[in-house]
């Protein structure tokens, strides 16, 4: 979660008084970093992943699975382990071979029931590094477990199925309704107690003028009463002024209603950060990975349950977005603008709204003409020498107020730090993040890819991480072009939420990724760009933007149109009518090669030894089959698990018993994965559909 400064955190509206000062100082710090690092060259191609865990209290003999709130104690135990903290690692013990790589690093997260772990050092460019990722992820899980109580377990479900349900769902138990969150469903103790986190939640609520509203459409099953009214909402509370929210319509029919940051920021995800060789490459990666965001969100879908109910959506994104939406009624357009500065169309947690590259293939038509920016900030950045496109990006981020301000930091501006810049930057939770080099560290320009949902096993998490690394290398190596209008990326992000979007929805995607850069001084594209895939086409001059992209299924995007045609009737639940997919008169121009074939083409073009290539192909296979429907997303598997549970009453309710058995199944999958024994005969429904029967060795 970025920086954890100590000090006196200002309450809202006290903090609001200093917002402009923080923005101005933040921009000065940004310019300082930018001036120093804009010409930085030849940084190594490094990358790193982040895995987030829920810590659950589970034993076979207990009736319920609970969330453990012992994050602080667990982190302390980890910090006291000298083997883990000694720089450089290199320790040996009975189970683990001597390691040259430093041991993983553990971090706090928003939820007091969460942990985050990253590798001990970023991964390098060597292909062999890609094979270290899964063992390292498994090691992280093992080390985390080693520092927990026997009945505590780190699991990688995106959300805890019974978070916020009536009764007991945490260990220890705390009664609900505290002064910070004022939630009717979760206690204040649900958040990391470090002053930053409760202040973040309280100031978001306070700035907004009411509690956050996280409303998810409920899944309508055979016996779900309809219209459905969330039975856990209490309309008769009078502890806080915010208790009026539900009486004022905060909890509409047919939606699961939640009212606190923990329901969103308490979700786990898989993030990947890349270091670029220079700022130009970083800006290119940012843009080219942007359109992949919604695709990877739908493909990693893992979030079908909220607050004890099955949802009609499969992913976490919009819920996190609502859970930190600090916009005021004026900013939301509910009241005329009087005290606030802008109408703002999106939450500060949302898909990104700008492209930033200097690539001449970035056509002005791809940008959002309605982008909201702080003109003064942009002017200051331009004055400081920054180009308009990058200045516009930061001027967009800086329309927001800083939420948590420490009094001590306001005393003097320290230009050797980036704390004020990071204050705004790190609370703009967009699906991509462009990370300038941190002050005083020899790190390059980085780009973070943030939309993916965490997967149940480390095999899957490694597969998605590796896939993203390989597609990024293919992008750079073949100079691929995935540009579509940024507002279409937004639209895709919403599409990705639909139940089973991975198989049943279509996404705007660019048809020709080989659109070469126009040569200097000419508007039309020229020159050849022939990767060894044999899939290249002649350079295309700029035509109407609408002709550059079309709606595609994820199978088409990941596997290519040809493969998709051959598999679609086999695995999809065919809500996409075949006629729609394959309209006989399809122009050859509408063929898309597919991201996996592009990666394969890239791997063919470089030197990868046979063993490494074989290992990588087990990961690519998982991605391929998830996209075709041959394997299921976690969301689909969880739905299936609930649906087949003998105690499920087909009324959308995920009871304590079902939730407990679901977590038990997740733990069983983990044990079997760890032991490498495959999944045949494992008494867990539908595991082969999730992971394949057995992962054969190479
Ligand atoms: P945040 O929570 O702010 O996104 P973290 O420190 O938790 O950041 O994780 C960042 C990830 O980036 C980690 O996997 C880390 O290994 C990786 N990383 C660190 N330094 C670099 C670097 N120079 N280049 C690329 N990745 C890096
Ligand atoms: Mg995190
Ligand atoms: Mg992190
Ligand atoms: Mg973080
Ligand atoms: Mg998080
Ligand atoms: Mg991160």
TrEMBL record:
Chain residue ranges for the region called Disordered: 515-542
Biased composition (Low complexity): 519-531
InterPro entries (UniProt xref): GCS, Gln_synth/guanido_kin_cat_dom
Class of enzymatic activity (EC top level): ligase
Enzymatic reactions: L-cysteine + L-glutamate + ATP = gamma-L-glutamyl-L-cysteine + ADP + phosphate + H(+)
Pfam families: GCS (PF03074)
Known EC number: 6.3.2.2
Source taxon at top rank: Eukaryota
Pathway assignment: Sulfur metabolism; glutathione biosynthesis; glutathione from L-cysteine and L-glutamate: step 1/2
Gene3D superfamilies given in the database record: 1.10.8.960, 3.30.590.50
Keywords linked to the UniProt accession: ATP-binding, Glutathione biosynthesis, Ligase, Nucleotide-binding
SUPFAM superfamilies named in the record: Glutamine synthetase/guanido kinase (SSF55931)
PANTHER family hit by this protein: GLUTAMATE CYSTEINE LIGASE, GLUTAMATE--CYSTEINE LIGASE CATALYTIC SUBUNIT
Family of the protein in this entry: Belongs to the glutamate--cysteine ligase type 3 family.
Full protein name: Glutamate--cysteine ligase
Record lineage: Eukaryota, Fungi, Dikarya, Ascomycota, Pezizomycotina
């Amino acid at each position: 979660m970025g920086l954890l400064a100590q000090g006196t955190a200002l309450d809202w509206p006290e903090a609001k008084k200093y917002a402009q000062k923080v923005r101005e100082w933040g921009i000065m710090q940004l310019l300082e970093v930018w001036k120093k690092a804009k010409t930085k060259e030849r940084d190594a191609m490094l990358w790193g992943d982040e895995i987030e865990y829920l810590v659950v209290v589970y034993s076979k003999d207990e009736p319920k699975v609970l969330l453990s709130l012992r994050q602080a104690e667990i982190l302390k135990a980890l910090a006291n382990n000298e083997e883990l903290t000694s720089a450089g690692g290199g320790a040996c013990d009975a189970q683990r071979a001597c390691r040259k790589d430093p041991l993983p690093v553990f971090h706090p997260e928003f939820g007091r029931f969460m942990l985050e772990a990253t590798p001990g050092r970023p991964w390098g460019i060597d292909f062999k590094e890609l094979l270290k990722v899964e063992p390292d992820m498994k090691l992280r899980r093992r080390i985390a477990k080693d520092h927990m109580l026997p009945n505590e377990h780190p699991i990688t479900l995106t959300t805890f199925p019974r978070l916020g349900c009536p009764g007991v769902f945490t260990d220890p138990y705390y009664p609900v309704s505290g002064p910070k969150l004022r939630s009717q469903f979760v206690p204040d103790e649900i958040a990391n107690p470090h002053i930053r986190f409760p202040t973040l939640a309280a100031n978001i609520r306070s700035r907004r003028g009411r509690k956050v509203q996280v409303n998810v459409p409920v899944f309508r099953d055979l016996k779900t009463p309809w219209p459905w009214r969330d039975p856990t909402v209490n309309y008769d509370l009078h502890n806080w002024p915010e208790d009026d929210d539900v009486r004022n319509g905060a909890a509409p029919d047919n939606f699961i209603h939640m009212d606190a940051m923990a329901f969103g920021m308490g979700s786990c995800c898989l993030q990947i950060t890349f270091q670029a060789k220079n700022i130009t490459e970083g800006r290119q990666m940012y843009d080219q990975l942007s359109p992949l965001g919604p695709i990877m969100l739908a493909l990693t879908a893992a979030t079908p349950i909220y607050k004890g109910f099955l949802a009609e959506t499969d992913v976490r994104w919009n819920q996190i977005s609502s859970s930190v939406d600090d916009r005021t009624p004026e900013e939301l357009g509910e009241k005329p603008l009087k005290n606030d500065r802008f109408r703002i169309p999106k939450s500060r947690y949302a898909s990104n709204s700008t492209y930033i590259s200097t690539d001449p293939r970035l056509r002005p038509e791809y940008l959002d003409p309605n982008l909201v920016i702080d003109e003064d900030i942009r002017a200051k950045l331009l004055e400081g020498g920054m180009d308009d496109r990058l200045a516009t990006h930061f001027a967009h981020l800086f329309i927001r107020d800083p939420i948590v301000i420490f009094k001590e930091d306001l005393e003097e501006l320290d230009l050797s730090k980036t704390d004020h810049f990071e204050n705004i930057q790190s609370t703009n939770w967009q699906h991509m993040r462009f990370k300038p080099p941190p002050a005083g560290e020899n790190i390059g320009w980085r780009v973070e890819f943030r939309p993916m949902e965490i997967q149940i096993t480390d095999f899957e998490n490694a597969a998605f991480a590796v896939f993203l690394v390989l597609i990024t290398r293919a992008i750079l190596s073949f100079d691929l072009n995935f540009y579509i209008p940024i507002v279409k990326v937004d639209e895709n992000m919403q599409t990705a939420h639909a139940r089973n979007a991975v198989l049943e929805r279509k996404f705007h995607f660019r048809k020709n990724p080989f659109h070469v850069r126009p040569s200097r001084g000419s508007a039309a594209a020229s020159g050849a760009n022939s990767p060894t895939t044999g899939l290249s086409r002649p350079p295309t001059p700029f035509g109407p933007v609408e002709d550059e992209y079309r709606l595609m299924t994820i199978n088409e995007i990941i596997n290519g149109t040809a493969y998709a045609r051959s598999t679609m009737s086999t695995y999809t639940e065919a809500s996409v009518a075949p006629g729609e997919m394959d309209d006989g008169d399809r122009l050859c121009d509408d063929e898309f090669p597919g991201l996996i074939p592009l990666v394969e083409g890239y791997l063919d073009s470089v030197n990868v030894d046979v063993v490494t290539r074989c290992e990588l192909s087990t990961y690519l296979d998982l991605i391929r089959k998830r996209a075709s429907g041959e394997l299921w997303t976690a969301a689909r598997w969880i739905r299936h698990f609930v649906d087949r549970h003998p105690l499920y009453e087909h009324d959308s309710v995920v009871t304590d018993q079902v939730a407990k058995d679901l977590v038990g199944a997740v733990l069983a999958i983990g044990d079997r994965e760890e032991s490498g024994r495959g999944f045949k005969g494992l008494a867990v429904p539908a595991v082969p559909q999730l992971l394949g029967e057995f992962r054969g060795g190479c």
